[in-house]
Specification:
- The complex is a heterodimer of chains A (about 230) and B (about 375).
- Chain A is α/β, with parallel strands linked by helices.
- Chain A has a single domain, classed as Rossmann fold.
- Chain A has six helices and ten strands; from the N terminus they run βββαββαβαααβαβββ.
- In chain A, helix 3 packs across helix 4.
- Chain B is α+β, with helices and mostly antiparallel strands and about 375 residues long.
- The two termini of chain B are about 25 Å apart.
- Classes of the chains: A alpha/beta (about 230), B alpha+beta (about 375).
- At the A-B interface, helix 2 and helix 3 of A face helix 1, helix 8 and helix 11 of B.
Chain lengths: ~230, ~375
């Protein structure tokens, strides 16, 4: 299903005034494709991603997945959590793994969050860990993994429930160019496999050869003239 | 408790530290409860162990609260009770704390004076004129055996034997004598015109209702209470029990605060994990269940260990330290600690509901 961000506006109180983090952004990410969102620091990219993920309510506008309106200014916290659990996979800027869980358990956790036995997700979890090259590290905890390995576990975790939407926030920020490119390739390939609509925030255009579309944000707005539809 | 159990396993040091604190608090609370019960037994077992339904006190003033040291009943009063409808038996019972002397030593004892055949002496023993029946503790204290001569409150008596059960009154071992022999011990100051006197009347009246008892009290100038209520009439019991029970209550309250404080700190330390779980879509209910489940594991492990330590400690203690280890002094306070500990933990983990995953992840 496509991801639709419609007239999204996000305004924060800032001392005695307000700060507009996202200003009337409309963006569609088709299912099975990856859209990269570029822009300088402070442009509003991560804020837009947070709205799409239901981590923060928009001040105005709405988020749709297919024809379903999933996020509005009045969506409850519980509904937003349910949205993330059922339909959205998120790869955070830093891996944000739980320190007490092994790589395999990081993925199996999703089943437990849904009220099912963790082992019910094991085949899918093992398949994904193998896809990201970490099958033999499945029993290691985050402290025993390198930064790149933790990032790959986080990617596998985001995809284990085959979400309709995949949101990726700066996956290459702590990686060198070569590794960053490989991570983006991995994300786009895995997301395409499950037909997820993928929105990927990045500041490094050089790593984005495999994405389908590039858009740019500047000063809380989309720069319409900077949309680049890459050829597959 | 998928995350909670793994968190406990991963953070063993924290788990052990918290569990040790819970163990210590539990040991304190249950040991104090056992000691309180033991001291209460030493104060009042002679009263609570009586096979009767009521004890009738006769106090100097009608409104005085029952007290063994001030109560005195006459033959007219216990005979009046014996004649009351529904009263199967009304036996005079003299209670007086005094000094006893054997060939070897002296000791404080409480002399209980009863009529032969009263049914108040633990079966199969009974009292006989000129003799005294010792409880095991009294026999130990006096180093006396059957056939020995002892002086009880100035009256020379022959030890008839040692009873099968140990009763205490006001922390002194009990000795049983006849009511007549008891008069020289406990009836000083009585009016000779009253004839033999006793301290209370022990009533066997299982089917007499409260109204009839009140009428009997009115008629005879007595106050009837159950043996359990009569504990308050033992001078050492009330103050001791109130102090120890107050200490227990404070300890239990403090334990809830301590557990709550620990879990507050622990929860703050887990804020990052909670933020990740919320960002992944965990419901507030899931998070609370997970956190409280973790608290429950720590509490159950700690409380169980502390309770076992109390039981083991009590078994190893010398017989001079009075402790009673049973369900009411171990399991009941232990269960109370778990419940209160969970309540304390619940207050602290409720902060989980206020974690903003977006802000917390940005800060992590």
């Amino acid at each position: 299903m496509d991801l639709h961000l419609e007239s999204i506006r996000l305004v924060y109180p800032d001392g005695g005034t307000t700060l507009t983090a996202v200003d009337d952004v409309t963006l569609t990410v088709p299912a099975g494709t990856t859209t990269a969102l570029l822009g300088p620091s402070g442009a509003g990219k991560s804020s837009l991603l947070a709205v799409a993920a239901g981590l923060t309510r928009p001040t105005a506008g709405q988020v749709r997945i297919g024809r379903d309106v999933v996020m509005t200014p009045t969506t409850s916290v519980a509904d937003a959590a349910r949205l993330r659990l059922d339909r959205i996979g998120i790869v955070f800027q830093s891996p944000q793994l739980l320190g007490a869980l092994t790589a395999l358990e990081q993925l199996e956790l999703h089943a437990h969050l849904r009220g099912r036995r963790p082992s019910s997700l094991r085949p899918r979890a093992l398949e994904l860990l193998d896809a990201v090259g970490l099958a033999d590290q499945r029993h290691k905890r985050p402290a025993e993994l390198s930064g790149g390995q933790r990032q790959r576990v986080a990617i596998a975790r985001a995809l284990v429930t085959e979400p309709q939407v995949l949101l990726v926030d700066e996956p290459t920020s702590a990686l060198d160019h070569e590794r960053g490119t490989r991570v983006v390739e991995l994300v786009t390939a895995l997301a395409r496999r499950i037909d997820a609509a993928t929105l990927l925030v990045s500041h490094d255009a050089a790593t984005l050869a495999t994405v389908d579309t590039t858009v740019r944000m500047l000063d809380a707005r989309l720069d319409e003239e900077a949309v680049d539809h890459a050829l597959r | 408790m998928f995350v909670a159990l793994r968190d406990l396993r991963h953070a063993r040091g924290r788990f052990v530290l918290m569990s040790v604190v819970v163990v210590l608090i539990t040991f304190l609370v249950t040991f104090l409860a056992s000691l309180t019960a033991g001291l209460a037994r030493e104060s009042t077992s002679a009263v609570t162990g009586l096979p009767v339904d009521r004890l009738a006190f006769s106090m100097p003033q009608p409104d005085d609260a029952p007290e063994f040291t001030a109560s005195r009943v006459t033959a007219a009063q216990w005979q009046g009770w014996a004649a009351q409808d529904g009263v199967e038996r009304a036996e005079p019972l003299g209670v007086a704390t005094t000094r006893a002397e054997s060939a070897a030593t002296t000791a404080a004892v409480t002399a209980l004076g009863v009529d032969p055949g009263s049914g108040l002496v633990p079966a199969p023993a009974d009292v006989a004129p000129g003799t005294v029946l010792l409880t095991p503790a009294a026999a130990d204290a006096l180093d006396a055996h059957a056939g020995d001569r002892v002086s009880v409150g100035g009256t020379d008596l022959t030890v008839a034997g040692v009873a099968g059960t140990d009763e205490s009154f006001a922390h002194t071992p009990v000795v049983w004598t006849t009511l007549d022999d008891w008069q020289t011990v406990g009836a000083q100051g009585a009016d000779p015109a009253d004839g033999p006197v006793a301290t209370v009347v022990a009533l066997t009246a299982p089917d007499v209702d409260d109204a009839a008892l009140a009428a009997g009290d009115e008629a005879r100038g007595t106050t009837t209470v159950t043996p359990r209520e009569a504990r308050s009439a033992v001078s050492s019991f009330a103050g001791e029990n109130t102090s120890l029970t107050t200490m227990q209550a404070f300890l239990v309250g403090i334990s809830a605060l301590v557990v709550g404080a620990f879990f507050t700190v622990w929860t703050i330390g887990r804020t990052g994990d909670v933020a990740v779980l919320k960002a992944l879509g965990a419901s507030t209910r899931y998070l609370l269940r997970d956190a409280l489940g973790q608290a429950a594991v720590v509490l159950v492990v700690g409380v169980t260990t502390g309770t076992v330590l109390t039981a083991a400690g009590a078994a190893l203690l010398p017989g001079t330290l009075p402790v009673v280890v049973d369900v009411t002094t171990t399991v009941v306070p232990a269960a109370g600690l778990v419940v209160l500990g969970l309540a304390g933990a619940a207050v602290s983990v409720a902060r989980i509901t206020r974690v903003d995953p977006h802000a917390a992840l940005a800060a992590r």
